[in-house]
Amino acid sequence: QVQLVESGGGLAQPGESLRLSCAASGFAFRLYGVAWYRQRPGEQREFVASLHQGGNGPTNYTDSVKDRFTISRDDAKSTVHLQMNNLKPEDTAVYYCNAYALSRKYWGHGTQVTVSS
What is the DSSP track for the chain? Predict the structure, then answer.
């Protein structure tokens, strides 16, 4: 059974950091690219960051998180992380883990991140 389970969300003050994790199981994780998306209330889900298979491939970030967020993966543990620094209120959203390969795409159930003073 394919599973992606996010963790690490919570409440943070502006300027603080959070580290999201996503544990994958049930598929050949190392053969998949990984990504994070987020969805703010009332808005569509949007791309945040991605990292191709192999871990040394190029990373991509949406402009609003460049230089603040870092995506990484550990294929030995089938996990993907999102280090989020200098958080802003507009980063408040539900964050979703995603794994993709050709026509296959898997999603986690999301973890809430709230940035507020």
Answer: --EEEEE--EEE-TT--EEEEEEEESS-GGGSEEEEEEE-TTS--EEEEEE-TTSSS-EEE-GGGTTTEEEEEETTTTEEEEEE-S--GGG-EEEEEEEEETTEEEE---EEEEE--
In whole angstroms, give the CA distance from residue 30 to residue 109: 21
Cα 2 to Cα 17, 25, 29, 91, distances in angstroms: 29, 6, 10, 28
- Contact at 8 Å (CB) between 51 and 57? yes
Beta bridge partners of 19: 83
Tell me 41's DSSP state: T
Taking Cα atoms as reference points, which of 40, 7, 15 lies closest to residue 117? Answer: 15
For 42-66, the pLDDT digits (tens) are 999 999 999 998 767 789 999 999 9
